[in-house]
Amino acid sequence: MSLNTQILIAAILGVAFGFLLNLFPQTSFFNASLYGLGIISSVFIGLLKMLLIPLIFSSIVVGVANLQAGGQLSRTWKITLACCVTTTTLALILGLACAHIFEVGKGVDVVMFQDAMNQHQTPDTLTPASFFTNFIQNTLINPFKAFAEGNVLAVVVFALFIGAALVKGGEKFRSVRKLSQQFFDIMMLMIGWVMKLAPLGIFALLAKLISTEDISVLSRLAEFAAVVTGTTIFHGAVVLPALLWIFGKMNPITFFKGTRAALITAFATSSSSATMPLSMKCAQENLGVRPQTAGFVIPLGTQLNMDGTALYEAAAALFIANLMGLDLSLGQQLVVCATAMIASLGAPGIPSAGMVTMIMVLQSVGLPAEAIAILLPIDRLLDTVRTVVNVQGDMMISVVVDRHTKDLEQPALQHKMHV
Ligand code: ASP
């Protein structure tokens, strides 16, 4: 049985087992199972996180060096950026449009959330300006600190720098380039090993999620949850595949078949960073994206391209405004879009990161930050689907970019990086 199929079966069994556990709450069977599931999921996530930083670093260094040597860096960079901005903008428009069409939050009584909001600590004001300053301060730091703290963005920036320096140095740094390439190959080999654990890890993660989340709170926010989830799925199942078809000339079915392992892992982990090693492997091995493109685009996309998060934040801001009985003007909605775009750029790919940056979006149009207390109870569940779309977007962009840079490749460089 292929790994893809094993992962799919494991996901279904994990959800089923989670519901089964819910039938025996607080029993010793429940507690013992939860303990076992916790151990298995920690091992799986731990191994992915262990590989993440060295993988991001080596793949970007090698990607920049080889793209530059092949004369494709500038076009790759431009197309990646254009794709990120286009898909995120479409996601934002979709998020706002659906929130308007379904008028989410209108007619819901805000009083029933008053307790939660009162108990919520008001965070410090987070304006786009202060967010941006923080963003820079957290990015240009000592690389060893960045490695140790797992600061993905700072590692990306440092790797881009080193990649550029290696290119500039040319022959002088040939051995370092070779070393980086070999280090990257070792990382990919190790990821292959970790993937063997994926079915078990995904089973454990999903069973744990279903058995520990309070699904009943969903019903209070059912309409909002359904609209956001439905719209996110629409973006992932219709908008992105259409773009892939037009600009990447790839059949969406081929895409979904090839990326199933990464998409299910994104759903189970709610973390695009933890899923990144798998996204890279799926893009290279199943979609035929050249390693230098995947190695450059996917780590960047993991940090910067989050369609699901942007869509969610725009829709959620409108939901809160409706709950409060406020009508946001067109100008205010544009501010929401711009802030949600910055927020999705800056949000790290970890569970519920979008909730933190959501504060900034709310405050940008004067909505109370405490209102996130309303969204928090269902966030872990909604995070699953938006992370899938975040990860899908990264892999999709790698296909489009690869197609549009292939013609630049110099023959001598072909097959230089095989994993
Ligand atoms: N969990 C998301 C991700 O890792 C980020 C978010 O909270 O929206 O992509």
TrEMBL record:
Signal sequence bounds: none
Ranges that cross the membrane: 7-25, 37-67, 79-102, 150-167, 188-210, 222-247
Subcellular location: Membrane
Gene3D superfamilies tied to this protein: Sodium:dicarboxylate symporter
Alphabetically ordered keywords of this record: Membrane, Transmembrane, Transmembrane helix, Transport
Entry keyword Membrane: yes
InterPro entries: DAACS (IPR050746), Na-dicarboxylate_symporter (IPR001991), Na:dicarbo_symporter_sf (IPR036458)
UniProt protein name: Dicarboxylate/amino acid:cation symporter
Organism: Acinetobacter bouvetii DSM 14964 = CIP 107468
